[in-house]
Amino acid sequence: MNSRTARRFLVAPDKFKGSLTAAQAAGHLAAGLLDRAPGAAVRVLPVADGGEGTVDAVVAAGFERRTLLVDGPLGDPVQASFALRDGTAVIELAQASGLDRLPGGRPAPLRAGTRGTGQLIAAALDAGARTVVLGVGGSASTDGGTGMLTALGARFTDAAGHPLAEGGGALTGLVRADLSGLDPRLAATGLVLASDVDNPLLGPAGAAAVYGPQKGASAHQIQQLEQGLRRLVEVLPGPAGAAARRPGAGAAGGTGFAALACLGAVRRRGIDVLLEATGFGPALAAADLVITGEGSLDAQTLQGKAPAGVAAAARRHGVPVVAVCGRLTLDEAGLAALGVSRAYPLSALEPDPARSMAGAGPLLERLGARIAEDFGAGSRDPGTPAPGVGPVD
């Protein structure tokens, strides 16, 4: 392909977990495209769905990164960032309260809390934020968001009137919840809960039962966490019971519930919020082909993960989409349902998973080059590629 016939590519992948951030993946793809098509117009726009990588994605799109020390899941200081632009702050719970922030990576399902996430929200308010987007995912805690609320001025006390210990395990001893001290600036702040999780707070589909095992909770600990969350609903003033049943209340160990019930949050799909924040619409209008992807394209991808949101937005604008991935388990029907005309898996280049993950960057550059060949000069129209898995060399 030469500059006279170069096409316009929009490169918008999510992270390849365990290998590359979304920005790194996008950079490698862009390098491969430009190596084979040096005159191509390539726009890089990493994406995320509200979980890990959300702050990085919006910073790559022009937000300012703000970094500070906050309490980690067990109270130890950790360095965390939020992003700010034009009065909108984007906060990623995993930055402060995520599984990756646990000391030594050791789970602490009863003791882990979300105070650091509340500290990030308070810092965003100090920085002048009028809208706060709270991306939840990868949480280490099942504390019902009480740590977050405590950092924002709420008080949770036991029978003796003492502040409750951090973590979901202490909630069974909750006697009183006082929200009167919540930061008054919250009343004038729009809070968006960016989450694809639609679980309620309680019950067999709730936060403890479904996500407790991912945080290291045993069967007995799951029962204790469930009892604590039920106690929280009983003690909180206002219509907490109704909020506990709302989709998304079970997100991030009940942090979604706290945001909905106590902070007046509005829940939206994470990828939709992030696409708006990063200016995906205008970038899409200038593209002939969108390249999205993530570490694994599978059935979960179809449930609203980042590549699904990218493909849906592109489909609405009539722009074709291809995907790259480390592992592909979707068949042609699954790819069609996703809105992707062709998939390029790293496993077709390197079948050994360990080597594929270790060498994901160079492998993505090879796939970028192949996409440039398939959709560049002398290729078929980008709107009508052969369906299914693209051949790679």
Automatic annotation (TrEMBL):
Residues 374-393 are annotated as: Disordered. The keyword Kinase applies. Keywords: Kinase, Transferase. InterPro entries: Glyc_kinase_flavodox-like_fold, Glycerate_kinase, Glycerate_kinase_RE-like, Glycerate_kinase_sf. GO terms for molecular function: kinase activity. The keyword Kinase applies. Belongs to the glycerate kinase type-1 family. PANTHER family: GLYCERATE KINASE. This is Glycerate kinase.
